[in-house]
Design a protein that fits this description.
By secondary structure, the protein is α+β, with helices and mostly antiparallel strands. It has helices at 18-28, 60-67, 82-90, 99-106, 108-117, 131-139, 230-246, 281-284, 289-297, 331-335, 366-379, and strands at residues 10-14, 33-38, 51-54, 72-75, 94-95, 125-128, 147-151, 161-164, 178-182, 186-196, 202-204, 208-213, 218-224, 251-260, 265-271, 311-317, 324-325, 327-329, 340-344, 349-350, 355-362, 381-383. The strands form five sheets. Strands 10, 11, 12, 13, 14, 15, 16, 19 and 21 form a nine-stranded antiparallel beta sheet that branches. The chain has a five-stranded parallel beta sheet with strand order 3-2-1-4-5, with helices on both faces. It is globular and about 60 Å long.
Length: 384
């Protein structure tokens, strides 16, 4: 498909957040024109895409009309209008990942059913139609504590997830169709990002360890290489490959996994797009996750995924107590540290825990990278 990578080829990217922005910038290296669909003209990707199209990615007409402007569609978000994508596919538009796959993945209940059908280890679960149904199941002891509630659709960045440890925490329950999962005793959380192209070539990035902000359930750091053993890493990569092949997936798939206290691997969730846990690859891996996505959907040979240097990725989150026009404190001081690479998303306004950028910290050892990352965290602040 090499002939498609030319300046008059129009790649449509649905949603214009930071993932869409970095993907558009990467595509420009190959002289691909990028079209962004987003409701916000000030979204991060609007300033660097070839064409910005204002529209709601949940609206049939907006998505369908956007598809008629481009030669191919990919995504930075899975919560989109699937009916419009199916119609566009029927009319011959190339869409990666496939709308049917996207439909499955965007619904956490369908995700769990897929895991069960393909012998993929995942926490035991039950489906409930509403908050009231969960409360009723709690009262009859149908649900055992502690448990995790996940809204089936629409959740992101810690939103749409509630951990309920006892009956007194029922006020934390979310309203809507939900998956209720058994809580696992987790030792590590890792992410495997796997790419697969149209010919079935498949490659995984090195496992990355995810460190969460427990208050907001948002990833604060990504550590690569992960601290898990070579045996666990090999099994995790094999599992990620199995998932991608079972889905007949084309594109980039992030597979989030739990490692329990007995070193057993459990799949948590999958995301059919570039992922926060892959930002470090921009500098730390021979091929970034964004280039790998382009290679996979254009059916080009997949790039090498060897780690160039150990790294720690820090999410730049809005400080608590600050809301308004963004100001960054400590940029110069942080940039003076060797191996620090700062990426700002261009969001004009900050609020507590909003993702405003990320920092990749590279060093010759993971211990040195962690030390530098801790220093950067002290220095660099997102305020207003």
């Amino acid at each position: 498909m090499e002939q498609l990578v030319i300046s008059d080829f129009k790649l449509g990217i649905i949603a214009g957040g930071q993932l869409g922005k970095i993907l558009a910038l990467t595509a420009s290296n190959w002289d691909i024109s990028t079209y962004i669909l987003d409701p916000n003209p000030e979204c991060p990707a609007a300033s660097c895409a070839s064409v910005f199209v204002k529209g709601n990615y949940l609206d049939f007409d907006d998505v369908y009309n956007f598809g008629k402007k481009v030669d191919m569609i990919t995504f930075e978000i899975e919560n989109v209008n699937i009916d419009a994508l199916k119609k566009l596919k029927e009319e011959g538009l190339k869409i990666f990942p496939d709308p049917e796959t996207l439909y499955l993945i965007k619904d956490k209940g369908l995700q769990k059913a897929f895991y069960s059908a393909h012998n993929i280890p995942s926490a035991a679960f039950q489906l409930y139609a509403s908050k009231e149904a969960i409360v009723s199941a709690m009262e009859t002891s149908e649900i055992q504590f502690p448990f995790v509630q996940k809204l089936r659709t629409g959740g992101y960045d810690g939103q749409g997830v509630a951990v309920i440890r006892n009956k007194n925490e029922s006020n934390k329950l979310l309203d809507g169709p939900s998956v209720v999962e058994k809580c696992l005793e987790i030792k590590n959380e890792i992410s495997i990002i796997v790419a697969r192209n149209l010919t079935g070539e498949i490659k995984c990035f090195p496992p990355a360890e995810m460190i969460f902000n427990q208050e907001e359930n948002i990833v604060e750091e990504i550590i690569c290489p992960a601290s898990t053993s070579d045996a666990i890493n090999a099994d995790a990569i094999k599992l990620a490959n199995h998932i991608a092949d079972s889905l007949n997936f084309v594109g980039l798939l992030a597979v989030e996994m739990f490692i329990d206290q007995h070193d057993k691997i459990w799949v948590n969730e999958i995301a059919p797009r570039p992922h926060n846990s892959g930002h470090h690859t921009i500098e730390s891996v021979i091929t970034s996750q964004y280039e790998q996505l382009l290679r996979s959907i254009f059916n080009l040979p997949l790039g090498a995924t060897n780690l160039k240097m150990p790294s720690v990725m820090i999410n730049l989150l809005g400080e608590q107590g600050f809301e308004g026009k963004v100001k960054y404190e400590g940029l110069s001081k942080a940039m003076a540290i060797e191996g620090v690479k700062i990426h700002l998303y261009g969001k004009k306004y900050t609020r507590a825990f909003r993702k405003m950028g990320h920092v990749n910290v590279l060093a010759t050892t993971i211990e040195a990278a962690k030390e530098k990352a801790a220093l950067v965290r002290q220095i660099l602040k997102v305020k207003s």
